Amino acid sequence: xxxxxxxxxxxxxxxxxxxxxxxxxxxxxxxxxxxxxxxxxxxxxxxxxxxxxxxxxxxxxxxxxxxxxxxxxxxxxxxxxxxxxxxxxxxxxxxxxxxxxxxxxxxxxxxxxxxxxxxxxxxxxxxxxxxxxxxxxxxxxxxxxxxxxxxxxxxxxxxxxxxxxxxxxxxxxxxxxxxxxxxxxxxxxxxxxxxxxxxxxxxxxxxxxxxxxxxxxxxxxxxxxxxxxxxxxxxxxxxxxxxxxxxxxxxxxxxxxxxxxxxxxxxxxxxxxxxxxxxxxxxxxxxxxxxxxxxxxxxxxxxxxxxxxxxxxxxxxxxxxxxxxxxxxxxxxxxxxxxxxxxxxxxxxxxxxxxxxxxxxxxxxxxxxxxxxxxxxxxxxxxxxxxxxxxxxxxxxxxxxxxxxxxxxxxxxxxxxxxxxxxxxxxxxxxxxxxxxxxxxxxxxxxxxxxxxxxx
Amino acid sequence: xxxxxxxxxxxxxxxxxxxxxxxxxxxxxxxxxxxxxxxxxxxxxxxxxxxxxxxxxxxxxxxxxxxxxxxxxxxxxxxxxxxxxxxxxxxxxxxxxxxxxxxxxxxxxxxxxxxxxxxxxxxxxxxxxxxxxxxxxxxxxxxxxxxxxxxxxxxxxxxxxxxxxxxxxxxxxxxxxxxxxxxxxxxxxxxxxxxxxxxxxxxxxxxxxxxxxxxxxxxxxxxxxxxxxxxxxxxxxxxxxxxxxxxxxxxxxxxxxxxxxxxxxxxxxxxxxxxxxxxxxxxxxxxxxxxxxxxxxxxxxxxxxxxxxxxxxxxxxxxxxxxxxxxxxxxxxxxxxxxxxxxxxxxxxxxxxxxxxxxxxxxxxxxxxxxxxxxxxxxxxxxxxxxxxxxxxxxxxxxxxxxxxxxxxxxxxxxxxxxxxxxxxxxxxxxxxxxxxxxxxxxxxxxxxxxxxxxx
Lengths: 456, 456
Description:
The structure is a homodimer.
Chain A: H1 3-20, H2 23-31, H3 35-44, H4 47-60, H5 62-71, H6 74-81, H7 86-93, H8 98-106, H9 110-119, H10 122-133, H11 139-142, E1 149-151, H12 156-165, E2 174-178, E3 184-189, H13 190-195, H14 202-205, E4 213-214, H15 219-228, E5 233-237, E6 243-248, H16 249-267, H17 280-307, H18 309-314, H19 317-345, H20 354-384, H21 387-417, H22 422-448
Parallel strand pairs in A: 1-2, 4-5
Antiparallel strand pairs in A: 2-3, 5-6
Helix pairs in contact in A: 1-2, 1-3, 2-4, 3-5, 4-5, 6-8, 7-9, 8-10, 15-16, 16-22, 17-22, 19-20, 19-21, 19-22, 20-21, 21-22
């Protein structure tokens, strides 16, 4: 499994062969690679070399070249394709399953994608256009419309013959059974076919109670189903329960990876489709909004501090310790809201158990606040020789960790209820609360008890 | 797919039936549920009700009860089992595949797990003990040792007969082919068996070039392989290439979910195995270290501020704007390091392309710094009427966003090189840097240019 080392070696050879122009050897080497490995090799080559290597491979083995492009992901894949002619893209797009082709074509510049669809065989472009009509991130959009289905009146023997004549169907392990109008009525596993005699009617051995997705089902929900019921594929039906496609577990794994990345990125204020090597200009543009919003909220926090400038003028030690109050609040808030956002994503946190979660988080927040507040109070006292300053710091910390816990629990739940992705906005709302309340509590208390504090 | 609504309904019925003591009806209802749904129902029931429901089900249908427990995950599952007698656990553990049993037993209190292993049938406990000897998070630990293998000298017809007599083997779609000493020599897909005549020797139709994992391979690497090569299962071999187990795609999905959660949690300083409803005491204990370390680093930042107390005493406006410098630094750093940590996890970021990533991040950091720094400078100037204060704020922000970008890229890479999980420690190292340098730059510059600033 030392895949990375092997790929690095192949990459070095590819670069060398490109440099010396050894086209035949290069083609030979590329053709031996798995599409997933080729995708990684393409992504690590400099732009010019990548184009050359892809052109060479596309001419000789269009299918492998396009499979590698698919593995790159639709966005990066489309970017690589976008420099070619519509004619060539149309030819290449027909080499891969229509769901993969649709994903790529969707990311091409609008004019180019229209031209490509015009140039494809009408049957193929029709299938792709159908897929593109479904909303993004739905089952309809990611399903493979070439689904292998058997008529309910068939016998096991007939089903096996059918399988033998349709050798190019992708990944068959569940055989879906439909009635004469293509309504989904059951499923038979491939293995089950081997265990019964050829005369057995499919109807007798099929499972009629099966899980299916509707075309408009959210892809994340499909993924959750496959994961919890350990499925290898889910059939997709339209509003009349007619079988229109299938989503296989490998598609689900891609969805899960994308959704996990999306959650991680959104918590950090990064666009969900950002990648390490997206273009700088685009990344700059995508990160700016988060930073700008953060700047705005920090001005709000600064405005709170400004209210207490006269107090700080008298006790400059307050400026020394105020970052501790808000820093601890932010850290504790991040812990709580991360667990809540992930719990919502995994379906573990719901409205019915929210109260339990809130009580738990608040008790932990207060507990940590007391423990660390006392510690901070002692350090501040020792550092500045002022026990009242220590007391104020400790008390502000307890208060802020309580706010962090409550807001960290309630804000994600509230956003979910308001149909806003909790991963997207929780962080900025909660840290603004802990910033404003942290500064306000610490400096406000200091102002109230100013006469007990050692002034500078 | 309205699974959640259905589960909520079942949950309500379960609670009602428990309340009125309608045992027979309750058992009836529970037995109709899928293990994954039962797991969710168990997790949402209060402790006492959960115990009662589990006891009832375990007595009638031990296998279903244990499958539900397995779906809960080993930690939560073991917690539920831990209140029962070793005798009962031993009986129940034999109802599920040994890999699932091993995972549960591993999380039982030590004395109890020893007693359980003693009480299991020697053959079963031997298998479980073998699995537990492999390191955590390795292929050996998560594999299913009951792997279906065929001898290379068999024909297709013999293979089918073999399949028909071994009806209880889990999830068969790849048939692994071994030599007489059980060395892994090839693989045949179930479907391929249907497409050739029964006399065909397996050797002729098997694929000899197949991907396998070693028992000590990291589970994350196995998951990455399954995902990139679209596999349904990976055979696991020992150091002599003997077939000892199989990891199926459903196990891989669990690994991927756990690893994504781990990355998300570690970035936020939460223990990787925390769940929304872990016990408060345990959660408190697990979150404390991150908070304590954060407190320590905040004291370091506070010490930097303390160096410049006399300056703050003269220009209290500095205390108002200093949270902006460090707050922006922390936000920008989080964006960069999240993308880097995820890029490392997905295998997109490597040493060979690190320079490219660094250049990109630094240019974005400086770009954002200039744009937002100018904005902040103007606001500070307008708010306080002091252009020099604005200038210092803007300059400190540019500097800090540069530091955030550089540290956000280099720290995760450095930690990975030092074999420390970058998700675990990047955040605290990077934000400490931006805190200390942010305060230092802003207040240091202010001290240098003090005579040009409007004093309070």
